[in-house]
Amino acid sequence: MPKTSDYFVGKTIIVTGAASGIGRAAAMTFAREGANVVCADINAEGAKETADRILGQGGKALAHATDVTSRREVNDMVHRAIETFGGVQFQFNSAGAALRRSRFLDINDALFESTFALNVQGTFYCMQAVLPHMLENRHGVIVNMASMAHRRGGPGSSVHYAAAKGAVVSMTLGVAREFAQSGIRCLSISPGPIRTPFQSAAQTPPELMQRFLDDVPMKRFGEPEEIGELVLFMCSDACPFMTADTVYVNGGGGWR
Questions:
Q1: How would residue 254 be classed by pLDDT, with cut points 50, 70 and 90?
Q2: Which value, in Å, is the radius of gyration of the alpha carbons in the chain?
Q3: What is the side-by-side order of every strand in the sheet holding 36-41?
Q4: d(CA 148, CA 138)
Q5: Which of 6, 85, 145, 251 has the smallest C-beta neighbourhood within 10 Å, fewest atoms?
Q6: What's phi and psi for 141, nearest 5 deg?
Q7: Alpha carbon separation from 166 to 119, 148, 154, 236 (Å, rounded)
Q8: Is the separation of the CB atoms in 68 and 95 below 8 Å?
Q9: Known catalytic residue: 248?
Q10: Which one is catalytic: 7, 125, 161, 248?
Q11: Is the pLDDT of residue 68 over 60?
Q12: Does residue 175 contact residue 123 with C-beta atoms inside 8 Å?
């Protein structure tokens, strides 16, 4: 929670991947605190549903169909966000996926390139689009979605995804340090398994899901809302000295 009770009122956050899962949960969390929320997702219908939920609860939201692998679409989305709400103070780059599970020797060029396009280039484009605006105002917080996978390497199922998320962690560190004296903070979150549509979309087999669960001492998966609350804290005035870090949220698991 922020130190100031109305800290987020009237401020604006861009949330990519806002159509479902962690992105939607974060969007709803920021709306609860009075923020304007730009709900961006390649799934236009899902983004609109999230925005409609916020509007239905008396909040302010804008839905924008955005493919984060397209620099043009990302630039258009950020421009419209600024035009609509007058400024953007926060960005949560939640859009990302493993696309599908694969053993290392079966990873083909298409899977590798599309995984990096979504997770790395998508995050890169979003940060490059919003940073000039934040620098002009000498204020901004960017939170990127990484993964515990970057610590483990994804053996047997997702080396491509782990490598992409490792790149996100490194890019976050570099951006944080480069702009630390310009009023910008940049952080990432590295979750363990979270109960979202991610696993089914990646075609995660039941036995692998059980392995994930067995590795968590709390013996449960995380909930999207738990990550949304963390993003809120990271963007708030409660941790102004926090930047360049990745925060691990895994119920105690994921280290072996």
A1: low
A2: 17
A3: 60-65, 36-41, 12-16, 90-93, 140-145, 184-191, 246-249
A4: 31
A5: 6
A6: -130, 130
A7: 10, 9, 11, 25
A8: yes
A9: no
A10: 161
A11: yes
A12: no
